[in-house]
Amino acid sequence: MSVALERVSKRFGEFVALDEVTFGVDEGELVALVGPSGSGKSTLLRVVAGLERQDAGAVRIHGEDAAPLGPGDRRIGFVFQHYALFRHMTVFENVAFGLRVRPRRERPSAREITSAVKDLLQLVELDALGGRYPSELSGGQQQRVALARALAVQPRVLLLDEPFGALDARVRKQLRQWLRQLHDEVRVTTILVTHDSEEACEVADRVAVMHEGRIAQIGTAAELSRGSANPFLESFLSDSTRKSGEKKINYH
Amino acid sequence: MSTTIVPPAPRHGIAPGPRTRQRPLTATTGEGATARRILIGIALAYLFLFLGLPLFVVFQEALKRGVAAYFTALREPELLHALRLTLLVAGIAVPLNVAFGIAAAWAITKGKVRGRTLLVALADLPLAVSPVIAGLTFMLLFGMQGWFGPWLKAHDIRIAFTVSAVVLATIFVTLPFVARELIPLMEEQGVTEEEAAVTLGASGWQIFRRVTLPNIRWGLLYGVVLCNARAMGEFGAVSVVSGRIRGQTTTLPLHIEILYNEYDFTAAFAASSLLAMLAVVTLAAKHLLERSHHAARARLIREQQERQS
Question: Inter-chain contact A132–B214, Cβ cutoff 8 Å?
Fold first, then answer.
């Protein structure tokens, strides 16, 4: 089990964001968390990252209790909805950041950093744009830089918070297919948060549907498309999910 | 008053070409050529009347009795002392308020401290209160009859009518400038870049040095310029707490007023020209810093382009 949550709860004031969530992701798996806004999916991701602290319960990463670890010590890569690129650094420096801030003993040499960054930019197909600033890139390009930056620290787990939410529909569609391919290539354990159930079913190995701070259901797209007794799920997993689920069955 | 100083970088590193001369106006805004000329004329006349003319008169008056008299006036030991004191006071007050301004803006916008509204209001106080009142308050605190008066006296510390008082009053008056410049800027920038940095393993200091500080540097520079201008030019508060001991606690503005009251106009305006030049130097320094930054950035993009082609 690469990431495991055990009865994790988190509230903001009166609002219960996570209500005893228990949930696990296998090594190399890509799991999507879907749900309407306020269902707790982003909070769950931020708790795994250590950007929020849970009020109760435990988070384990590779079997290790993450409680004593800050966000920087968890070996996670986090990709934000609005990219959060360092606006005053070039694309190259953005990707190099995680390597440059390592303590001297663990820091790779300048040459190693350069070659690692070049490889990553190649991976995200942006090798020609290393000298640009984020403001000079399109949204889709910025998000790929953010992905390269997160991968640079060789994370054990990749956390994507609505990574395509700010992009237009066409780019979003391209990027999610590209993400699926990238994941098949890199095979890093990934949790993807999205409010788009179609996107979730198309990209992820398994989909967890969140509702009011709980995981209402979890399974492959095909399993979810078979329907459920839960009226919320019925309404949330719209026809589009069904269709893409059926497509999946046809492919296999 | 959030000021974005950085202009948008030219896309793809192509410098904006020679500007097309006299863009004909303007179907979109609808003003005719006449209206446009009148507006520009008003703006220029206003600038000349309220900024250009006074500056010109200062130098004209200073040089009225010839260049020799001007430089004699500038060599006056009391004036040189006032100049040194002004620079010293600004040299202490500005760095302290830069440190405070960054800390306060960080606490308010990124640190999510409680009572932020109160903190913002407090930081604005020196702008709302007349400097003279600020000076009097300091006297009430540190004067012989003031709150801390007996304690200070018992420990043989003098503050009222000393350079320390001048420094304290200046710090008070210039306190808001940096913070006010940074708070809206940092508010707008949010915390996600810092969050990204922390997930990438950066320490608190690294985040501040490599992410937060570079993002605010132009706002900070502007705040420093405003703060410095006020620190060197402050009159009211300093006038009250300094006791105006000639050649000891008189800063340049105080010294200028003393000379003026003594009908020594050449010396008064010579000193004024000095203060005006300090302001010009500050603005020029800011301008040069900005320009060298943009030049460096344009060069970087150009090199990148060349490497690719």
Answer: no
Gap between the Cα atoms of A187 and A193, Å rounded? 18
Question: What is the ipTM score, two decimals?
Answer: 0.88
* B300 vs A contacts (CB less than 8 Å): 90, 131
Chain A nearest-CA distance from B20, in A, is: 24
Task: List for chain B the helix, strand, coil content (%; round to 5).
Answer: 75, 0, 25
pLDDT tens readout for residues B82-122: 999 999 999 999 999 999 999 999 988 887 777 888 888 88
Q: Which residues of B touch A (CB under 8 A)?
A: 8-9, 11-12, 192-193, 195-203, 206, 210-211, 214-215, 300-301, 303-304, 307-308
- Whose tokens are 């940096």? That residue is B178
Helix or strand holding residue B146 (H, E): none
Distance between CA B101 and CA B95 in Å, rounded? Answer: 10
Q: Which residues contact B13 (CB under 8 A, 6 or more apart)?
A: B298, B301, B302, B304, B305
Q: What is the pLDDT of residue A252?
A: 36
Using one digit for the tens of pLDDT, what is the confidence trace for A28-51? 999 999 998 889 999 999 999 999
For B200, the closest chain A residue by CA position comes to: A98
Measured in degrees and rounded to the nearest 5, phi and psi for residue A37 equal -65, 145
Residues of chain B contacting residue A49, judged by C-beta atoms under 8 Å apart: 199
Contact A72 B200 (CB under 8 A): yes
Alpha carbon of B216: minimum distance to chain A alpha carbons (Å): 10
Distance CA B124, CA B107 (A): 16
Q: DSSP string covering A181-228, please?
A: HHHHHH--EEEEEES-HHHHHHH-SEEEEEETTEEEEEE-HHHHHT--
pLDDT < 70 positions in chain A: 227-231, 234, 237-252
pLDDT score of A137: 93
**Quick one: DSSP state of residue B235?**
-
Residues (pLDDT < 50) of chain B are 1-21, 25
Which of B196, B211, B307 lies nearest to residue A80, judging by beta carbons?
Answer: B196
Tokens coding A41: 């999916």
State whether residue A128 sits within 8 Å of chain B by CB.
yes
CA distance A90 to chain B (A): 10
- Please name the residues in contact with A193: beta carbons below 8 A apart, sequence gap of 6 or more: A32, A33, A34, A41, A42, A44, A45, A159, A160, A161, A162
- pLDDT of the residue at B307: 63
Q: What gap in Å lies between CA B10 and CA A172, rounded to an integer? A: 27
pLDDT score at B23: 52
| Confidence (pLDDT) at A251 | 34
Instruction: Count the Cβ atoms, other than its own, within 10 Å of residue B169.
Output: 27
Name the residue facing B195 among A51, A77, A88 (closest C-beta): A51
Please give the pLDDT value at position A228: 62
- Give A88's contacts in chain B (Cβ within 8 Å): 214-215
- B195 interaction partners in chain A (CB closer than 8 Å): 51, 71, 78, 80, 84
Cα–Cα distance for residue pair A78/A115, rounded to 1 Å: 22
